[in-house]
Amino acid sequence: MAKTEKTNASRLLDASGISYELIPYSFSEDDLSAQHVAQELGEDIDQVFKTLVLRGDRSGIFVCVIPGSFEVDLKLAARISGNKSCEMLHMKELLPVTGYIRGGCSPIGMKKAFPTFIHESCLLYDYIFVSAGVRGLQLRINPSDLIGFISAGIYPVE
Fold first, then answer.
1. Whether CATH 3.90.960.10 fits 8-155
2. Distance of alpha carbon 11 from alpha carbon 106, whole angstroms
3. Residue 133 and residue 110: Cα distance in Å, rounded?
4. Element (H, E) at 145
């Protein structure tokens, strides 16, 4: 079980006066899936959002935050980000580019403010979960607060 110590993401939210809750959960190196997180939290998989980092052919690095039950649609992600094509960032690049590791990548507090797009289904909920920036710890946050804080664009349902 992760400790509920402050993370970079939570410190940034604190500094901005945004309300959130840190929720610890048990994780396994063998299963870093959103499904596992949702089961550990006892929450709906569609409220547990995963943070995916991609590279576009025109814009470079950008971020998509999507429900745990979804797979990223690369053609749609490219289109909404102003690219012709895109691909997932290679895992070995994740830490140097974002400051986060796989299974602990938060849309808040990356090394640089990358263009970020969040799936519009988040607006159906009073709160969603995103990584707090370490494995074993999630942020429970109002999606509108998150969108405003990270200046996210909306990733349409198609």
1. yes
2. 13
3. 9
4. helix 143-150
- The angle at the Cα of 130, spanning 124 to 134, to the nearest 5 degrees, equals 175
**Number of helices (H), then strands (E), in the chain:** 5, 8
Task: Using the predicted structure, report yes or no on whether residue 1 has a pLDDT greater than 60.
Answer: no
The H-or-E segment that residue 153 falls in is strand 153-155
CA 98 to CA 93: how far, in whole Å?
8
pLDDT digits (tens, 9 = 90+) for 78-118: 999 999 999 999 999 999 999 999 999 999 999 999 999 99
**C-alpha to C-alpha distance for 73 and 19, rounded to whole angstroms:** 31
Phi, psi of 138 (to 5 degrees): -115, 155
pTM above 0.90, yes or no: yes
* Amino acid at the residue 146: L
CA-CA distance, 139 to 108, in Å (whole number)?
10
SS3 content of the chain, % helix, strand, coil (to 5): 30, 25, 40
Reported as a pLDDT band with limits 50, 70 and 90, residue 158 is low
Q: How many CA atoms lie within 13 A of 83 on its CB side?
A: 20
